Please model this.
Amino acid sequence: MDMLGAEMPIIQFAIHRVLYWQNADQRLDFTTKNDTAAFTAEAALDPTTPRILRIAGDSLSAREIATVLTRIERRRYRPQWVGTIALLSTMIAFTKRIAPGEQEVFPPWQ
Model:
């Protein structure tokens, strides 16, 4: 959640926009480090835990994030379309070639 306005700049506070690709109603999964750590510890100790786990503290769309921010900040936030999934895929492929960031926690293409 901490990354929404920094490393993963979905929220553009200066212009009151929430960026999205393709569809403003596509839900995104979010969680916090603490939630993930607690969930993982419980799962590790539970003998009935399935092999694959999907962890999400909450799921919200860009449109829902804009609504929440509008309510909290009392300034109107709107979803902002930034392109198609095809364009995003092309940008990722290009960025991987010029800046692979293999040793970085958050490589530029991510």
